[in-house]
Amino acid sequence: MSTDQADDRTMVGIAGAGQLARMTCLAAWPLGISVAVLGSPAEPSAGVCHRLVEGDWHNAEDVAALGAASGVVTLENEFVDAPALVAVEDAGTPVRPRPGTVGVIQDKADQKERLAGAGIPVPRFAVASTEAEVEALGRDLGWPLMLKARRLGYDGRGNALAESMADVPDALERLDRGEGVLVEEHVPFSAELAAMVARSSREELVYPVVETVQKDHVCHEVTTPVALAPGLEDEARRIALASAQAAESIGVMGVEMFLLDDRVVVNELAPRPHNSGHYSIEACETSQFENHLRGVLDLPLGPADLRAGGAAMVNLLGSYSAPSHHRTEEAMAVPGAHVHLYDKAEVRPGRKMGHVTALGESAESALATARRAAGLVRL
Ligand code: ATP
Ligand code: MG
After folding, report:
1. Which residue segments constitute the domains of the chain, with CATH numbers given?
2. Averaged pLDDT for residues 216-239
């Protein structure tokens, strides 16, 4: 880490310092791009950034300090208050993706409105504030219903599955923060898909479609390519691209989708690199982190083609609470496995501690390798 900027390179400021910022920093070094992160010295990217701006992305003054230290500001989460990002732009530092994009995405109801308004297929939805409104939606959309907090939901924590009206009072109590909740039909998906989209002001491209498997609402495994009925891969890519265009994204955007019998619908957008795109570090010509930087800086985008017949990623999630003592020798001995650790000092249940990626002739063979290695990592 250095604090001196001896040349006039643009400093990319990231409003956060977690594992996504860490992997973005690692992608920046070989390109000669400098990155400042906003966080504390204990966070995953503090040791690999060019500059640590000590502070907290929840705090508008700290976000302003990051803006003052940067030539352009970007994100690793969509929860940074949009008005704080507008203030960064007003003070002269561009924010990419734009504050307007972040503002629409950070409210799940506004996000769904934007997508639906652009003709993108999404589960049927509405906003409700009262039990009577949810009951009417239950008659209209059918039970069960998925209730979602409009803001600040992640890893399923802002969601409640309501089987019937009996579940609704508690769900409203927990999720409604004064602006109603998003109510969605519960879609009977056969798989969850995702695709990363990279955009600059001039170019755009879509990464391969992946299948994601969640465990306890947290992304667990990712594989690509996905065996889809003819035409559905193209359909998913088309929908992902249209979603990013509707949100006017810049840099990388993650598009989470549901696969139904013969069609694809969008679940949600993330205006930043995404867990389902980590495989791209080894598996694609240009990783999502590199293309995020390229898009944000308006540099040429790099191709996103797969470098192997198949690829898989398995997350390393904490299963207990303790200080972390990484033991990776056995996993590193698995040929074809790539181990990534995020340098978090404490293990906690469900906490994302790292991931393993493997390439193979097929998605299945890559997944077998990645699972074997992931099972050998001791956190
Ligand atoms: P994360 O941070 O994990 O991406 P989140 O907390 O923002 O997620 P969502 O992505 O909205 O929440 O939902 C989490 C999971 O709940 C989805 O991955 C999916 O498994 C399930 N889910 C969400 N919406 C629906 C729906 N309408 N029908 C069926 N399942 C759903
Ligand atoms: Mg999600």
Report:
1. 8-95 (3.40.50.20), 124-185 (3.30.1490.20), 191-374 (3.30.470.20)
2. 95
